[in-house]
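Checklist before submission:
- one chain only
- standard amino acids only
- sequence pasted in full

Submission:
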Amino acid sequence: MPHARSSRPLVLFSFLLSFLVVAAAGCGADETANESAAADVAPEITAAPGTPEPEPDSDPEPESEPEARSYDFSAVDPIVSEFVTENELNGAGLIIVQRDDGVVFDGYWGDFDEDRISLIASSSKMIAAGVLMRLDDDGLLDIDAPIADVVGWGMANPDITPAQLLSNSSGLVGLLPNPSYGPYLCQYVAVGSLQECGERIFTTPDDDADIVDPDVEFRYGGAQWQVAGAVAEAASGRSWAELIDEIYVRPCGLDVLAYNNHFAQLS
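Returned file contents:
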């Protein structure tokens, strides 16, 4: 799995507030007379009866820094080591990420280390979902609106939303029980574009007898993810490779992260 070393830029904003005080002095008048006149027109301001005396200002207590949490994963090593040995594997890698603290553990066994490049297979679904969520954050896509709002060919199934594609609940045919489902074979072919494949999958009449309404069944994986990628490209005006580079590779300082077609590499 790609190992990301993230850095979050901190931008400091400074605001300078200036006060200009202008004092005007009277001239040609006696200072004593001026003081006397001021006393005549400026009544003494006193607190109403029963009003408590104001307490002197005191500096607020500084907020203490939260204590860094410690994690103990010492029990992990013997478990993974035994698993690798018993199953005659060449190694394993484990990275644990906590929402607030980031990477809290990384461990490697056998031939694996932090520089190993591996295919992450279906874990790429999380990365793909992150792309569409980012476009939603940027206002380029509404994941809960029909994809017909983004692409004209979306009218072939006018009720399906990007959120349903990402949750495997779009009603399109999934990978099971037939991974080689004929109308969706372009998802395996390294020819043509993602846009062409997404449109072909979404508009083919050959799946009419096999699709169901959205949010009726969970149908894992498959062609609906190709459609989601095509929608992301259309909404952003950028290729999938450009989106991955912009949203993940550059911000996270990654050396290796990309999508490819491993079916085309089996030979």
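Reviewer check: The chain has two domains: 70-116, 119-265.
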